[in-house]
Amino acid sequence: MKRRSIIIAGLFLTASIATYAKNAQEVAAEPGGTYEYSFKKYAYIDVQGGGQTSIGVYDLSKMISPTAQFTVGWQFSKIFGMRLGANGWQSKDGFSFPYEVPQGFDKVEFWKYNYIAPFIDLTVDLTNFGKFNPKKVCNIDLIFGAGASYAFNNDQANEFEAAYQSALGTSALRNIWDDHYLSLLARIGADFRFRLSDHLQLGLEVTANSAGGKYNSKKGASIRDWYMNALLGLRIALGKTYTETYIAPQIKEVEKIVEKIVEKEKIVEVEKEIVGPMYCQIYFKIGTEAMTLFEKQKIKEIANYLKKNPEANITITGYSDSASGTKERNMKVSELRCESVAKALMDLGIEESRITKIAKGDTEQIYDDPELNRIAVCVAK
User: Fold this and answer.
1) Could you give all domains of the chain from N- to C-terminal order, each with its CATH number?
2) Residue 205, φ and ψ in degrees, nearest 5
3) What are the residues facing 358 on neighbouring strands?
4) How many Å separate Cα 28 from the centre of its chain?
5) 3-state class of 213 per DSSP?
6) Which distant-in-sequence residues (6+ apart) come within 8 Å of 17 by Cβ?
């Protein structure tokens, strides 16, 4: 009982400490710009394998047996999720002779049996109580679950019990069962998941499981039998897990006032300068170089920057998404997008000699979302 309490307390302590793990901050899009992220509901599957050990009086390392787990889940908020799954394979337990070991027996006699345990879990993501950020390195979930445990194939325990009774005339396993044993299951644990990509995470899950009192065939002080699972596996997200919004950099104006006194007249000259380079993205609809009024407003802001900074030049890089069209068509579309932005700037009074155009087609994809790659990126400095 004491050992079980220590293990459960340690599990909670580990999860609590882990909430201070490194949390990636807002990711810079380009010089001066940032992204803001919004959570999106998604389904996922977990495929895991590892080991199980009974929580008892023996050396836990000698009680390890293989186990596997498969789950299907639904993350319905940035903090809470549900999942339905099953784990199973093999359990192992043993009987230790307290005094003299009878002839023909070992000091500790072990036996193996099989099990399968379907369950339903509630998951609580401790790392998302603050600002949501899908790019962070590690997520930590607490797991609370319930289900059933179906144990079967208990031949080794029955063989030991028969030999014990034959040698000593009494019973060693007072909760022995023959064909199968079904009981309710309670679960608690933690899952540590490390980001590999937007759709893939590497996870380490540790759970303490409480089955019925006859699960291990022994009669002990506790009315429940406990075992621990440690599982390593992959989580695969089925669809997008977030949306992102690009926040363009704000251009700061700095005013300088220079006073000159000529005879009795006071002349005030005001100089304006723009601090830092300007970065802007112009978005287009699929297969076109036409711009909306909102995008044309961005062009006016670029033109104002260039007029206030006569030494600055601008580079326009056109892109097209690889999810539509041929490579030749996509290259042509990106060229037209460069030309469209350049013409709009020249119509606003910017000299052509200050403009550099680069067409990338679909050879480079800045974003995972195809819609976000239908752009012209403008850098003025």
Assistant:
1) 2-243 (2.40.160.20), 276-380 (3.30.1330.60)
2) -115, 135
3) 317
4) 19
5) coil
6) none
- Which stretch of DSSP H or E encloses residue 214? none
The Cα 238–Cα 258 span in angstroms is 62
The residue among 200, 209, 264 whose CA lies nearest residue 231 is 209
Residue 267: both structure tokens together: 């002349």
Return the closest-CA partner of residue 212 out of 201, 227, 198, 194. 227
49, 50, 53, 59: CA torsion to nearest 10: 170
Q: Which residue has the tokens 């099990």?
A: 115
Quote the pTM value: 0.59
**Paired strand residues for 271:** 256
Task: State the Cα–Cα distance between residues 79 and 127, nearest whole angstrom.
Answer: 8
The pLDDT tens digits for 146-162 are 999 999 999 999 999 99
Q: Pick from 114, 140, 117: which is nearest to 69 by CA?
A: 117
Q: How many helices (H) and strands (E) does the chain have?
A: 4, 16
For residue 132, the 8-state DSSP code is -
- Helix (H) or strand (E) segment spanning residue 331: helix 327-347
The CA radius of gyration of the chain, in Å to the nearest whole number, is 33
Residues 116 and 86 sit within 8 Å (Cβ to Cβ) = yes
CB atoms inside a 10 Å sphere around CB 105? 16
CB 46 within 8 A of CB 68: no
Residues 6+ apart with CB under 8 A from 204: 191, 192, 193, 230, 231, 232
Alpha carbon 9 to its chain centroid, in Å, reads: 25
176-201: pLDDT as tens digits: 999 999 999 999 999 999 999 999 99
Cα 65 to Cα 225, 228, 244, distances in angstroms: 16, 11, 44
Residue 224 near residue 4, CB atoms below 8 Å: no
Cβ neighbours, 10 Å, residue 80: 14
Could you tell me what percent of the chain has a pLDDT over 90?
61
